[in-house]
Design a protein that fits this description.
- This protein is an alpha/beta fold and 294 residues long.
- The chain has two domains: 178 residues, NAD(P)-binding Rossmann-like Domain (Rossmann fold); 87 residues, N-(1-d-carboxylethyl)-l-norvaline Dehydrogenase, domain 2.
- The protein contains eleven helices and eight strands.
- Strand 4, helix 4 and strand 5 form a beta-alpha-beta unit.
- Helix 2 packs antiparallel against helix 3.
- The chain is globular, with a radius of gyration of 19 Å.
- The structure holds 1,4-dihydronicotinamide adenine dinucleotide.
């Protein structure tokens, strides 16, 4: 497998896919970005352009580098246009059967040594790989939101993932300026597994009315050095993403009480209080931009 990945396909141009496309393009890769929703690509390109413009305005990036990054992202409408990719990473909907169908389709398009990576936060990379003809080329490449600022990424090795695929992803992670953490495939991998404790305990304390969410966030920011407290993070990610992740991890650990989700989160999800994306989560974002703070 190629250890110097330069041609990258990204499937799914939502919050994560557009960020992955941006960091890869900024590191000099040529990126093809695909989405099944017609307006998603245009929105993704606009969002990358805005983010780069902000970096230029703040003096963190030259206009020439911003232009070069944007020019390396090609929005494409069909998967078959990814036929020359050395790596394809998916950031589509968090449903195993949909991701499996995508990888099967991609295997018929991409070269035999192209790595297929998944940005899943909670699904089994092993099960995704098992549906492929060549499971050795399948690995997890799990970023955090927002991708351009959270400079850590998990590289997940499933039992049948080739070491060369892991090494190539670690090398690319370094090139894009992310710290790569190699993990084996287990529910929630490392970061979401460890982070569960803060989110779940925070939700329990709120549900029991021990303390308000602002207080809990403030404690973790001030005393524990967190950049964001659990409720700020839940609002940024959105309960539509976080609640299924909590439920999936709990299920994969056979209902272990340590991972039991708190019903308050599902109730708020059902009420549509998703977070920044609905302008109302644990905090109110009325009149504020929906983008994450820089
Ligand atoms: P999103 O909903 O913002 O974007 C998903 C995009 O994929 C949408 O534009 C949708 O049109 C497109 N899509 C859906 N099915 C498709 C298909 N079959 N083919 C092509 N495009 C398709 O979702 P987001 O938040 O970017 O998440 C994407 C993935 O990344 C999920 O697996 C999620 O669990 C994972 N993830 C999300 C994080 C987050 O904080 N949002 C953090 C880490 C991982």
């Amino acid at each position: 497998m190629n250890q110097d990945l330069r041609k990258v396909g990204v499937v799914g141009a939502g919050a994560m896919g557009r960020g992955i496309a941006q960091v890869c393009a900024a590191a000099g890769c040529s990126v093809q970005l695909v989405d099944s929703a017609t307006d998603a690509l245009a929105r993704a390109i606009d969002s990358v352009r805005d983010d780069l413009s902000q970096a230029v305005a703040k003096g963190r990036l030259s206009q020439a580098d911003a232009d070069a990054t944007l020019s390396r992202i090609e929005p494409v409408s069909e998967l078959k246009q990814l036929s020359g990719c050395e790596l394809v990473v998916e950031a589509i909907v968090e449903k195993l059967e949909v991701k499996q169908a995508l990888f099967k389709e991609l295997e018929a398009i991409v070269p035999a040594d192209c790595i297929l990576a998944t940005n899943t936060s909670s699904l089994s990379v092993t099960a995704l790989a098992a549906a492929c003809a060549s499971p050795e080329r399948v690995a997890g490449w799990h970023f955090f939101n927002p991708v351009t600022r959270m400079r850590v990424v998990e590289v997940i090795q499933a039992p049948r993932t080739a070491l060369e695929a892991v090494q190539a992803l670690v090398s690319l992670s370094k090139r894009i300026g992310h710290r790569a953490v190699v993990t084996s495939d287990s529910p929630g991998f490392v970061v979401n597994h460890a982070g569960r404790a803060f989110v779940t305990e925070g939700l329990k304390l709120l549900a029991e009315r021990t303390a308000e969410h602002q207080v809990l966030d403030g404690i973790l920011r001030t005393c524990a050095g967190f950049r964001m407290g659990p409720f700020e993070l839940l609002d940024l990610t959105g309960l539509d993403v976080s609640v299924p992740v909590m439920e999936s991890i709990h299920g994969q650990y056979y209902g272990d009480d340590r991972y039991r989700p708190v019903t308050l989160a599902r109730t708020r999800l059902l009420a549509g209080l998703l977070g920044r994306k609905t302008r109302q989560g644990f905090y109110s974002y009325e009149g504020k931009p929906a983008a994450p703070p820089s």
